[in-house]
Amino acid sequence: MEELYAEDVVFDVSAVFTDVAPMQGKENVRRYWHELRETWAGLRLDPGELLDAGGGRYVLSLRLWGRGQRSGAEFDQPLAMLYDIRAEDLKATRVRVLPDVATALSVAESSASQPA
């Protein structure tokens, strides 16, 4: 996934994980995923349908699976990722994790007047 991100990508999971502030830069995103892997065993993202939301924005449905390292508590969470893609190099400049596809499409539509 990281190869698809611009060096200065903004990665925002705050709509789903309210205690995590948006992060900027591939290094910070990499660090976040490493921290998740330390907390959750068997962490897995299964991609679903990719939708063109227009204006260089794409919505990907997905499921996030895992089990707590210490607690053993399991989760299976449907989510959506909204990508803003820069046309000149096809890199993601902003990635937002949202609760579902409908929300992601709504956010994409409401930000259609903003640059990708």
Task: Supply database-style keywords.
116 residues; alpha+beta; Nuclear Transport Factor 2, Chain: A; 6-stranded mixed sheet; 2 helices; 6 strands; 50% strand; globular
How would you briefly describe this protein structure?
By secondary structure, the chain is of the alpha+beta class. The longest helix has 14 residues, at 26-39.
Describe the structure.
- There is one protein chain.
- A six-stranded mixed sheet has the order 2-1-6-5-4-3, sandwiched between helices.
- It is 21% helix and 50% strand.
- The model has no long low-confidence stretch (mean pLDDT 92).
- It is an alpha+beta fold.
- It has helices spanning 26-39, 101-110, and strands spanning 5-12, 23-24, 40-54, 57-68, 74-86, 91-98.
The ordered string of helix (H) and strand (E) elements is EEHEEEEH
How does the major sheet shape up? 6 strands, mixed
- Count every beta strand, where a strand is a DSSP E run of 2 or more residues: 6
Structural class: alpha+beta
Distance between the termini: 19 Å
Radius of gyration: 14 Å
Record the strand order, biggest sheet: 2-1-6-5-4-3
CATH topology-level name:
Nuclear Transport Factor 2, Chain: A
Number of helices, counting only DSSP H or I runs of 4 residues or more: 2
Percentage beta strand:
over 45%
**Average pLDDT reading:** 92
- Overall body shape: globular
CATH architecture: Roll
Helix content: 10-25%
The CATH C-level name is Alpha Beta
Total domains: 1
Parts with pLDDT < 50 across at least 5 consecutive residues: none
